[in-house]
Amino acid sequence: MSHTFGADSTTDEVLNGIDLAGKRILITGASAGLGVETARALVAHGAEVVGAARDLAKARGATEAVRAAADAGHGAFALVELDLAALASVRACAEGLVADGRPFDVIIANAGVMACPFGTTADGFEMQFGTNHLGHFVLVNRMAGLLRPGGRLVNLSSAGHRFADVDLDDPNFTHTPYDPWIAYGRSKTANILFAVAFDRRHRARGIRATAVHPGGIQTELSRHLTPEASATLIASINASQQAHGLPPFRYKSIPQGAATSVWAATVAPAETVGGHYCEDCHVAEIQDGEGIRGGVRPYALDPARAEALWAKSEALVGETF
Does an H or E element contain 156, and which? Predict the structure, then answer.
């Protein structure tokens, strides 16, 4: 690669000189924040993007700039309905796309919820695990046949995966006291493990999967956090950073946050990112030890753990892929 990108790189910088004409990309969560910016950047470079969103009226209002960028960049943009917290909606969305028959080059599993109070999905799963992981697990696997050889899956994870490994014995907090950050960590670890297992299953077709951490960005994702909770979280991150000789935390802009998604999806060599976890437009190093900081915990890339999660997910959703 002729360019080196980092934490400050934006979507437009990463995609500078890249022609995505003829590429078709699905993005979940295309009604706010990173999803909207990811779509805007891709269509501006000629891609055809299908944005999936739970609230289509909200999504139409939020993506006016995406449609304008599509017109200016000779790309295309359309919306489909998808509620990741209801498997009936997930299956209907996947069935519609499969019936349409047009292939995709990339799926970006961007949508998610963070640190919400305890709740369950329409199917009775803990909300964060059910939405962030199981909804995407069913959607992506039902659509896998639409991915062209050479295609990619990009799962949005988080440094928050360091809060917790998945709990395959009690995924819904039936016997465990609920903690919103532990639940978030479990779901974000699941996003990485899903990419590891999907990559193993599909790499023979030239399809690779990766997980990415966008960085800390102020978007609707943090709507469940009080100012006090946000301050406490940042203080914890800074303590970990300082203990490891790293600079203090700072928020990224939304274009900087979406940069790693578009880099992993369209710019980085597939063999570089496949089966890995990426941050700041590079493959992250394995970092053991406590604290929320850069790098990826070993348990999130464990192939045996990935297979166990796959089997548990199939059992939970009642489908075998």
Answer: strand 147-156
Q: What is the mean pLDDT of each run of 10 residues along the chain (321 residues)?
A: 83 98 98 97 98 98 98 97 98 98 98 96 98 98 98 97 97 97 97 98 98 86 68 73 74 95 98 98 90 85 98 98 97
Structural domains for the chain = 11-312 (3.40.50.720)
* Residue with token string 């959607």: 139
Beta strands in 29-125 (DSSP E): 48-53, 76-81, 104-109
Quote the pTM value: 0.93
* 3-state secondary structure at position 220: helix
Q: Are the C-beta atoms of 258 and 37 separated by less than 8 Å? A: yes
| Residue (of 38, 49, 55, 56) closest to 71 by Cα position | 49
Catalytic residues: 184
What's the CA angle centered on 27, arms 1 and 96, to 5 degrees? 135
DSSP 8-state code for residue 122 = T
What tokens were used for 320? 């075998």
In whole angstroms, give the CA distance from residue 178 to residue 143: 32
